[in-house]
């Protein structure tokens, strides 16, 4: 067993760059402020670019990164990919991109073909929405026939799907994984276990256990901040270890979700927390979760 915090290379499997001064992000404008799970997010309604990101990540042997779509202008999803490619050319980051795609829109085939033609895009994301709380009636877009027709096109283009949805909708994700076994689902932000009550954590674990039975699902351990708490409080270490136990070290990737999670903690606090939580794992397993799995999943050189 290792017993020591990981010191090897890190590929951050989920982060964002943006510059609202030059590119339109509706939610980063004064007029477009939205209800947000971390509360007041004015601190991140400003440019966040590779130089600042590298400074935030200093001390953690950053060896690569995955840019995830930023709710850029929904009328121009391919423009975001061109922007990410320009950042790559100028700054050497990112190494891979998760593009924006509205799977229930009429132009989905054209957008996915455009993503597939990019040298950076490996996956797409479309948040499926409601229900907003456990037990709330209704279904998400994962059960919508039009959305699923768009989803069915992913395999044709060799694209993965980054799924951001809370744990109480994961039964729909299980059906999606079973119905489209050729498409890899990458669950974002650990299934969003924001409710740290005993009941909430039990519900999260049960839902995650069902999803983990699907061989075509991997998980990003990220997005673990809770409004009004320090990052390490409220069972965070337990959640990390349970996610690893459920999915196995070959299906876990660690990620910063920066700059969004800078509202909760520094990059160092987050990554040091990850490292502490899995320090008892053998070094090759740690390296898999911090680096090698992201390189494999996102096909990074």
UniProtKB/TrEMBL annotation:
Residues 11-300 form the Amidohydrolase-related domain. Pfam families: Amidohydro_2. InterPro entries: Amidohydro-rel, Metal_Hydrolase, Metallo-dep_Lactonases. It comes from the Bacteria. SUPFAM superfamilies: Metallo-dependent hydrolases. Belongs to the metallo-dependent hydrolases superfamily. This is Amidohydrolase family protein. It comes from Belnapia arida. The lineage of its organism: Bacteria, Pseudomonadati, Pseudomonadota, Alphaproteobacteria, Acetobacterales.
